[in-house]
Amino acid sequence: MNPAETHPVGTVFTSSVPSRLDRLLWSSWHWRVIVALGITWILDGLEASLIANLGSVLARPDTLGLRVAQVGYSNSIYLLGQIAGALFFGHLTDRYGRKKLFLITLAVYLVGTAMSGLSPGFFVFALCRFVAGAGIGGEYAAINSAIDELIPARLRGQVDLGINGSYWVGVGLGGALTMVVLNPALLPVSVSWRLVFGLGATLGLSIVLVRRQLPESPRWLLMRGRVAEAEQAMTSIEDAVRKDTPEAVPGTRAPEVSVTVTGAVGFLHIARVLLRRHPRRSVLGLALMVSQSFFYNAIFFSYALILSRFYGVPEGRAGIYVIPFAAGNFLGPLLLGRLFDTIGRRRMITFTYALSALLLLATGYAFYRGMLDATTQTAAWSLVFFVASAAASSAYLTVSELFPVEIRGMAIAIFFVVSQAAGAVATATFGKIIETENRAALFMGYAVGAAFMLGAAVTAAILAVDAEGRTLEELAGI
Length: 478
Hints:
The chain has 20 helices and 2 strands. The chain is mainly α. Helix 2 (28-53) packs across helix 7 (167-181) and helix 17 (374-401) runs antiparallel to helix 18. It starts with 11 loop residues before the first strand and ends with a helix. The mean pLDDT is 87.
């Protein structure tokens, strides 16, 4: 094969680029990829934490004066923005490449979150939350595609889970940030809540220059027939890896794999892949994504309201309780992630989904019976989500790795959209339930979330693919 060639759609050729990516030993270059791209999850966690911890503050007359229901609506609007962004930018990331889109989506997020802090009332605030959500939703498609296409197959499970779990680093950061900034001894709350959003935008801005240094996905370039660019990108990756860790680039010749140039594909092709070629994988992805989204959004977005309404935790102090909760969520994927590459996807997905459901039922019953206080409630939920966070992260891993390169961005977007619709329903519904302060109604809501997770566990036991250690090309071909 001549590296200078550019192949038209339908051409079948061989390339060593995918094998060269998968055989690289772990290096500082891979860490840079994680930092530059994994920031998406930290930013989303930060946004979720900010609005959750600011919930009671935004209801004050000297801030935005929102009703409790409007706090729930703001969360739902943010999620709806993620839905729109995922669909729009997901299509563009498959058409125009991973790199262009993960720079654009970050810029959209920065504008939305910065403007949130300048909002004069609910309607402008809701619009800004929608824009910030659109940026994050678009990030999911571009970033998850790029990560899976750059990380070696033997490590893909634990790396994906660890990156997805970093969402909770953002949550913990948001909790600590609100706890400090919302301290009335430092600044009046009428000013400090706006500063919180500005600090979130500053974090995102700091990563722009790092992202500019990353290459386009060589796998995506191959699928577009841009062979010369794919070779150049692969060579630049190997040079960067070799410079930092010389032994990480094997000296032997890498095997070649067959590649079919697909170019940009339309929605009919995407539908055929999802519904005719891989219907079992589509059902699996739908079950995993919807259940974890309902499960999470039913609880996390109303966390501060639960603490204040049922346990009397003062406004601005919820961050103290969010930090250990976030730690449990982060440590779960980090510590359990390796098992998804060793014990295997099917067993671990089934186990984590089922155990999450049972733990939530037990915790929900204890809450209903009034057996918990703010501290023990946080401890119980931290245990639940130590397991549930690994389960949720494995859902994103599943929908990212099981579909071919040419539709990967849109596949992630579609499943993400459906799941976030379920999440938006959960946040609005639980916001209304909490207003009634009815423990029995809340327990029934938690039971519904647990039922979703148990259903997903059964689905995984039947339909999950043993993807551990397999290359993306191999998974696309089976």
